[in-house]
Design brief:
By secondary structure, the protein is an alpha/beta fold. Helix content is about 35%, strand content about 20%. A hairpin with a 2-residue loop joins β14 and β15 (about 380-385).
Amino acid sequence: MKNESIHDREGFPMRTDRTRHAAPMILSYFLFLLLVLFGCSHQSNSEVKIGAIFSQTGPIAPYGNKALEGLNLALDEYKGSGLAVSIIVEDAKSTPNGAIAAFQKLASVDKVAVIIGPESSGLAMAISSLANNEKIVLFAPTISVDKYSSPNDFTFRNWPSARSIAQKMADVCYNKLNYRKIAVMYINNDMGASYSSAFKERFKEFGGETVSMDSYLASDSNFGTQLSRINSAKPDAIYLIGQVEMGQILKQLHELNVKLPVLSGIGIEDPKVKETAGALINGIIYTTPAYNPISENAAVQKYDTAFRAKYNKASEIFAASTYDAMKILAQVIAQGNTTSEQIKNALFKTKDFAGATGRISFDENGDVIKDISIKKIEDGEYIFLSEDLTPLKK
């Protein structure tokens, strides 16, 4: 299994804590979509089967369960309204083999038209070719790896590609922070390779220089060799791409007295990074898919209010992105698209859907087109920044 978490990406009422370890669970929601909500009068009498593959057990289950919270909230909104839909949830078990088994069951036994999930790039890559072979739409709400992109097929995502997120960071570095020399340190997997190569390419286009490119394994615990090499290269800053191990890297930077600004991605928000690095995370600037709960946008505020009411806590982006993905599927199905081919074609035509994570469209690869946010950690809080890097206030 690839060592990936959020890019690779809590309970969910469909599955209780007592049963989470059990065999994959099937839950049917019979939803009646309120067609007038979408300005559409077309109605179908057939039940549309939607599969959901998310890790509910294993090391990346926290991300799968966050995604399922968003899915469940979206489903709640359509209870008691128009078109019958069956939702069938399978546990990916945090492994490629688990995702494959879940897919095969949904495809051959349940004969679903579309699958939402999984939460990890590694898991999504394990089943993307299967989805295309079986001609079943695979809509991954929280994965970024560039290899997932392919034109005019059945794979879609609601999370910006690693390329677009890293290119945004290159813009921030060169044009807003005025850095000209950057050291890149990245986890050695598909996600890390996607981010690092895209950053280097765009930073060079701006006129910047990547003075070192150092990788590491998720299983590594000593990063002294890479950090010493980075310090010797005399960069203006370090672009650090990884997962929970970034906490240990930040600690070792401090121990080696390497005093360089650190830039990163959404992985820096993993609670285990803060647990390990403490106050060392303060000052880090990073780029991330957009979900800003302090926005005054009506769709954002509706989602944030509903999420807090249901779960008694603030939402994270994994839930928000999955919520939007399910809402988009609901809209598509409400318009009378009930087969996988019809759903695929309708997704390609989706333009400017007003979601909790911004306005959403899809390109010819099924990659989402939407805004990317800039954030900074201050006093342990994850603060949204404007394009001129000033903090956004509600």
